[in-house]
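Kindly go through the entry underneath: sequence plus fold tokens. Please state briefly how this chain folds according to its tokens.
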Amino acid sequence: MSKLTIVLTEENYPEVDKMLDDLGIFAKGYTRYIDGELTTVGLRIGEKPGHIIAFWGDALTVTTTTTNNKRVTLHRGVNDDVTPKEKT
């Protein structure tokens, strides 16, 4: 079994996206409107239904037990300093 934990940031998300894709786990940028502009704020991981949304500052733990058994666990808000704030 292998396990890797990484904090998702705006700077590393392309590499995290590629790593997940290489493991056969679907991932793509997740966007929201912030101050009137469509902005990437994290990753959507997995296929609908049952996908998860990881925002900047969330930690992802990827566990691989076999070639066909992979799991991503989300740990919300590990580093709130990198999470964009939405204006209300």
